[in-house]
Design a protein that fits this description.
47% helix; glycoprotein; G-protein coupled receptor; transducer; receptor
Amino acid sequence: MQSELRSCFWWRFQSVHECQNLLVPQPEGLNRKQAHNRLVADLDQQRFEVEETQSFTNEVATAISKLKEKDIRIVLGNFNETWARHIFCEAHRWVFGV
């Protein structure tokens, strides 16, 4: 993934991940928080700037508002399809003022 990011000249990011309900059994392997932490560590090692990391459980406006505050245009996320719609609609509202 790092080579694709470099080829687009993307260096600054915000990362957003969904906090999982600990009462719900998780599939084998990494959970979202562990995967997120690994991604941030890998990006840092490759000298990318992760300006902000946000997590959410049931509200995304606060996490996305950091985009506008820090003028970050690239968001790396780890969340399910349902949350993807909410997150990208909220980001669209903040960026375009819709």
